[in-house]
């Protein structure tokens, strides 16, 4: 038996139940891992609330963790017992002391990356990597707008975009968060609670707008993000922390010949080769200090409801992890 968080029916934070779950030996292609640190992300809230439907109920939630392989099933060659590993993706169920997972989703951790850092960077780091290098290839001199610039995802995006030569503009809700963003690659932090971020973006860019907007907020920022684009700019909607945006007509993109995309990480790491290449890039920029990871806020696994309340209430900066 192992303790895990499971959902018996969608709902608020109270829907998460801390309970014993029976474990079985790993089957073909599976690895049994003892988890040491678990990442908390907005996708977990979508799973808990029913926005993203779970395969069945009751079911675990969570998509990211680090730990140690305890045993593997027949045919597994990717990892072995004793390996330190991390993952982002696969079937939901990361909120657990131990779990079974397809071995092909696991990545071995280098010595330079500790478990708590790994639990912060697998989903967010690999997302930042494909956003900056594949969905839109950020170039030197590009103006980039990052929403929620002081969150875990935002801090990685700001630092990495700056390292690629971009001029980073970021929106935040408080002076404290603005200062944090500024220390992490955001040249122009904007307090959206007291400033019109569209007007400020136009001022910063001399009226031209930005080459790309990275918007993980959704409904509250989506239409204004379109206004911030330069001619032939790209709006990359990669999340919806404030809710799904209202539908728009394709003709809304015509005035600027703008591009709109709604990517997801799992299409960029669908093959083992792509997964390893993506993770390698993330480990390198973290190991060499290009991207510095703020110490995450820690919660005990049993206190997951509080973690969700704080994340959804935008009471945190940087990343959140659960400790089993």
Automatic annotation (TrEMBL):
GO molecular function: mRNA 3'-UTR AU-rich region binding; NADPH binding; quinone reductase (NADPH) activity; zinc ion binding
InterPro entries, sorted: ADH-like_C, ADH-like_N, ER, GroES-like_sf, NAD(P)-bd_dom_sf, QOR-like, Quin_OxRdtase/zeta-crystal_CS
Keyword Zinc listed: no
GO cellular component: cytosol
Keywords: NADP, Oxidoreductase
Record-linked CDD domains: QOR2
SUPFAM superfamilies: GroES-like, NAD(P)-binding Rossmann-fold domains
Residues in Enoyl reductase (ER) domain copies: 11-322
Pfam annotation, one family: ADH_zinc_N
PANTHER family from the UniProt entry: QUINONE OXIDOREDUCTASE PIG3-RELATED, QUINONE OXIDOREDUCTASE-RELATED
Protein name as catalogued: Quinone oxidoreductase
The organism of origin for this protein: Phreatobacter aquaticus
């Amino acid at each position: 038996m192992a303790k895990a968080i499971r959902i018996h029916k969608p709902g608020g934070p109270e829907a998460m139940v801390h309970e014993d779950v029976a474990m079985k030996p790993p089957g073909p292609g599976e690895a049994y891992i003892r988890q040491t640190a678990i990442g908390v992300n907005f996708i977990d809230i979508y799973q808990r609330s029913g926005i993203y439907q779970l395969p069945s109920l009751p079911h675990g939630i969570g998509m990211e963790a680090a730990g140690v392989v305890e045993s593997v099933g027949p045919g597994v060659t990717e990892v072995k017992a004793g390996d330190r590993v991390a993952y982002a993706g696969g079937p939901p169920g990361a909120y657990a002391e131990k779990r079974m997972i397809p071995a092909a989703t696991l990545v071995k951790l280098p010595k330079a990356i500790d478990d708590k850092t790994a639990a912060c960077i697998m989903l967010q780091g690999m997302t930042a990597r494909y956003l900056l290098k594949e969905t839109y290839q950020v170039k030197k001199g590009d103006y980039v707008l990052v929403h929620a610039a002081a969150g875990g995802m935002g801090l990685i995006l700001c630092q990495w975009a700056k390292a690629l030569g971009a001029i980073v503009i970021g929106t935040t809700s408080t002076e404290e968060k603005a200062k944090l963003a500024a220390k992490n690659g955001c040249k122009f932090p904007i307090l959206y609670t007291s400033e019109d971020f569209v007007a400020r973006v136009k001022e910063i860019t001399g009226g031209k707008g930005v080459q790309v907007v990275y918007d993980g907020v959704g409904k509250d920022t989506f239409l204004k993000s379109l206004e911030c684009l330069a001619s032939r700019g790209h709006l990359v909607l990669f999340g919806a922390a404030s809710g799904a945006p209202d539908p728009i007509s394709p003709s809304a993109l015509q005035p600027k010949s703008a591009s709109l995309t709604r990517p997801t990480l799992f299409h960029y790491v669908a093959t083992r080769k792509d997964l390893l290449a993506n993770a390698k890039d993330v480990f390198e920029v973290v190991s060499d200090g290009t991207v510095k990871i703020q110490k995450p806020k820690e919660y005990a696994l049993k206190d997951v409801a509080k973690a969700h309340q704080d994340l959804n209430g935008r009471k945190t900066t940087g990343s959140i992890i659960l400790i089993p």
